[in-house]
């Protein structure tokens, strides 16, 4: 299908009103690839219709990104100009909302030295550390959505028929984010209520730990005192609600980064900044990755784990039913926004401070005292399957099913 103007307008309206939920008089920054320009034009219209002011678009071009890695010395790739940081910081410091269009080419940096990519990413993450605090602490509204791009669509459907791949991906995206429904906004409100029910149930339980078991996972995860489960919509510091990820099928919290033990194997590939990592296994002891192996992208995985001290520890545990719409598509999207919502997943690196009571008011040292990991990175990887069981362990040692054979075992879901 070729998306119609009506469909694009419907998707843009959903993104602006239910995703980032820009307010009257609020500035909006849209970060987007140039291939998304048609959709971005609709987004800008909808943003102004909602009363936004000072709508800015920061364009990226993957062809130029690849050329930089092909020709520039590492010293240039590691140099993040002050103006680039200041642009983002000034926007969020003044209360602006941020919308990211995430549609990466999974093979963009294939063949580039993994160490070069890792050092460039580390420099960029370090430069943007203060900006990212506005995101991970929900100080502002922010959201991430995707639209098809040629290379991404061809990778998913493994075809040289570019036009058909893009059309097929549009169809999948419209179904998964509920744009194909008569009232997408109401559909999202209903969906959020389901996730809120699960979130509230788990917050009331305050399990001491979780136990994962399947052919891919044999893991025990300690949970911090006063941990907070989140999922569906979020609320910014101003009190404005928004949906950070569209799609989203998860409820998530932070583990006690010191209390993770066991082994995990991935169930879907990880696209890490233009390089694929697949068939990998991680072994945790007292929270730290002490052993790892990978069938593809081993060097990339090594450099990811070496990003900083916190990169070898977990910052997020997320629960997703195997019957989620993304999973039922039977596609591997090579895009974390989509693949993470097809499967229970874990994240290496930084936790969201909001996943512990009062965490948004704590500095890094105070967070670590509570067992909340800090890092320059946050990388989700998928471990869910139709065979996965997840049990909540109470402080009395009782085990209660949360996920059974890939599906929710919680009443009322």
From TrEMBL:
User: Keyword Protease on this protein?
Assistant: yes
**Protein's UniProt name:** Aminopeptidase
Organism, scientific name: Alkalibacillus silvisoli
Gene Ontology molecular-function annotations: aminopeptidase activity
- List the cofactors: Co(2+); Mg(2+); Zn(2+)
> Hey, which family's this protein in?
Belongs to the peptidase M29 family.
Q: Which InterPro entries does this UniProt record tie to the protein?
A: M29_Exopeptidase, M29_N-terminal, Peptidase_M29
Q: Does the keyword Protease apply?
A: yes
Its domain of life reads Bacteria
Q: What are the record keywords, sorted?
A: Aminopeptidase, Hydrolase, Metal-binding, Metalloprotease, Protease
Check the record and name the Pfam families matching this protein: Peptidase_M29
């Amino acid at each position: 299908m070729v998306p119609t103007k009506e469909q694009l307008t419907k998707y843009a309206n959903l993104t602006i009103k239910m995703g980032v939920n820009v307010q009257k008089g609020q500035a909006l920054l849209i970060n987007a690839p140039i291939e998304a320009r048609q959709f971005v034009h609709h987004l800008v219209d909808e943003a102004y219709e909602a009363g936004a002011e000072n709508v800015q678009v920061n364009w990226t071009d993957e062809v130029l990104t690849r050329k930089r890695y092909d020709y520039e010395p590492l010293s240039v790739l590691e140099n993040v100009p002050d103006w680039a940081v200041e642009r983002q910081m000034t926007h969020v410091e003044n209360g602006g909302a941020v919308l990211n269009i995430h549609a990466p080419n999974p093979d963009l940096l294939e063949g580039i030295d993994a160490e070069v990519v890792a050092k460039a990413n580390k420099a960029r993450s370090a430069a943007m550390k203060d900006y990212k605090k506005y995101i991970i602490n929900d100080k502002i509204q922010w959201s991430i959505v995707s639209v098809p791009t040629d290379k991404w669509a061809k990778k998913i459907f493994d075809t040289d028929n570019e036009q058909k791949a893009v059309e097929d991906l549009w169809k999948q995206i419209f179904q998964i984010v509920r744009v194909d429904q008569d009232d997408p906004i109401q559909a999202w409100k209903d969906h959020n209520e389901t996730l809120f029910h699960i979130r509230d149930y788990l917050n009331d339980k305050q399990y001491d730990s979780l136990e994962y078991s399947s052919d891919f996972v044999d893991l025990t995860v300690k949970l911090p005192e006063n941990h907070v489960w989140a999922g569906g919509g979020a609320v910014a510091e101003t009190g404005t609600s928004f949906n950070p990820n569209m799609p989203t099928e998860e409820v998530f919290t932070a583990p006690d980064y010191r209390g993770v033990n066991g082994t995990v194997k991935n169930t879907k590939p990880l696209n890490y900044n233009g390089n694929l990592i697949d068939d990998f296994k991680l072994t945790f002891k007292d929270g730290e990755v002490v052993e790892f192996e990978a069938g593809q992208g081993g060097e990339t995985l090594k450099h990811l784990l070496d990003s900083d001290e916190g990169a070898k520890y977990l910052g997020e545990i997320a629960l997703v039913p195997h019957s989620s719409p993304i999973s039922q598509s039977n596609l591997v999207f090579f895009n974390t926004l989509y693949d993470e919502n097809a499967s229970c997943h874990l994240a290496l690196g930084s936790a969201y401070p909001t996943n512990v009571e009062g965490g948004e008011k704590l500095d890094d040292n105070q967070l670590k005292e509570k067992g909340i990991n800090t890092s320059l990175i946050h990388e989700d990887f998928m471990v869910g399957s139709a065979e996965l069981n997840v049990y909540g362990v109470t402080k009395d040692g009782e085990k209660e099913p949360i996920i059974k054979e890939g599906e929710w075992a919680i009443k009322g879901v």
